[in-house]
Design goal:
The complex is a heterodimer of chains A (238) and B (122).
Chain A: H1 6-23, E1 46-51, H2 61-70, E2 84-90, E3 97-103, H3 111-115, E4 121-123, E5 129-131, H4 141-145, E6 152-153, E7 172-173, H5 179-182, H6 189-193, E8 199-203, H7 210-217, E9 220-221, E10 233-236
Parallel strand pairs in A: 1-10
Antiparallel strand pairs in A: 1-8, 2-3, 4-5, 6-7, 9-10
Chain B: H1 2-20, H2 38-59, H3 68-75, H4 90-98, H5 113-119
Classes of the chains: A alpha+beta (238), B mainly alpha (122).
Chain lengths: 238, 122
């Protein structure tokens, strides 16, 4: 299957905008999808740079910290909830091994948001992709749309949640970049817990941030860059 | 005169019934000055919570006075730190009396944050 044709999409957007102006100058008859006015100034885009050369094989401190912070049970079965997982990869020809954490990549153009029938899956104005579980009906389209398999469905009733992280049975969830911590000026739990400082968190748009400088000075990649989703999570040393 | 008497009777009967009913007794926790007038809150708290929830989830507006966490902070019982644990808990007492199901706590914690932290400290 071919990827989304962005040129085609942009063409439609432009022509629809032109049509709206032509019909009623000064009055827009409809609100373009995802075109709601921003809550903040829209200049911030949270992201992470993960240095795979610093990520130790067998270490799962980030996973443990995530589970603790968000009150996840921490199973790894097919139906278990996993917001972040450690992946060990090996290059077949050279035998070079690498270890890296995988989670929601917080895409600029998230496929999960495109497919959500209720608008529960959405992108916050600072680039964080979230599920509004008040609206989620548990259809799991987003889980199928996500190329990173980042989302989980909650199969079991949940008790004793973190008061800052409400979660319950029958909805889909994934990494929130610890949005409740970010809103309080803290770092995500995984970034804070990494003893090797392999996870660098920051504002991808702020020229004074460490992450801004680093993604301009070292080679980094986006996973499945061919899909042109422009992910907020970047990997270094792959 | 007859009409007046019957009108009076019509008004008097519901009044007599109303005074005879039992009002739910609830454990208001720490209590104190509520963010709005108490009677107004009884009628409108659900609208405030719904408005706040959308602001919080979509715009990241937290720590305003109309948050569910704020309600729980003041009104969770001082005995068990919960707003739903017992029949006279703050949310349960009225909701049971009015037969209105609360969905909030299928996902949200009904406990004070401090109590949760204490239990989940390393």
């Amino acid at each position: 299957m071919s990827g989304i044709d962005l040129r085609r999409r942009n063409f439609f957007k432009t022509s629809m905008g032109a049509a709206a102006v032509a019909i009623a100058p000064g009055i827009l008859l409809f609100d373009a999808a995802h075109g709601k006015p921003p809550a903040g100034d829209g200049k911030v885009r949270w992201g992470m740079l993960i240095d795979t050369t610093q990520c130790r094989e067998g270490c799962s401190d980030c996973v443990t910290a995530c589970n603790k912070e968000n009150g996840l049970p921490g199973g790894t079965s097919a139906t278990a909830v996993q917001w972040i997982r450690k992946v060990e990869i090996k290059e077949v020809s050279t035998g070079r091994k690498m270890s890296l954490p995988m989670m929601c990549q917080h895409c600029e153009k998230p496929p999960c948001v495109d497919v959500c029938p209720t608008g529960a899956s959405f992108k916050r104005h600072d680039g964080i992709v979230l599920v509004d579980r008040h609206l989620c009906i548990g259809c799991r389209y987003c889980m199928m749309a996500c190329p990173y398999k980042a989302r989980s469905f909650v199969h079991e009733p949940v008790t004793d949640q973190n008061p800052d992280v409400p979660r319950g049975k029958g909805t889909v969830e994934s990494c929130t970049l610890c949005v409740h911590r970010i809103d309080n000026g803290q770092q995500p739990a995984c970034a804070e817990s990494c003893t090797n400082k392999a996870i660098l968190f920051g504002d991808l748009n702020d020229p004074d941030s460490d992450i801004f400088r680093k993604i301009r000075s070292v080679a980094s990649v986006q996973l499945r860059a061919d899909l042109r989703l422009n992910t907020g999570i970047r990997y270094q040393g792959l | 005169m007859k009409l007046f008497a019957s009108l009076l009777l019509c008004l008097w009967i519901p009044m007599a019934l109303a005074t005879g009913t039992t009002v739910p007794k609830l454990d208001i926790g720490k209590g104190g000055q509520c963010v709005e007038d108490a009677q107004w809150m009884r009628k409108n708290h659900m609208d405030l919570l719904k408005h706040q929830r959308d602001d919080t989830v979509h715009k990241g507006v937290r720590n305003t006075k109309h948050s569910l966490k704020g309600c729980i902070e003041c009104h969770a019982s001082t005995l068990d730190n919960s707003v739903t644990a017992r029949a006279d808990s703050f949310c349960v007492a009225c909701h049971r009396y009015e037969s209105v199901k609360i969905d909030c706590f299928e996902c949200h914690s009904d406990k004070r944050k401090s109590a949760w932290l204490q239990r989940n400290a390393k």
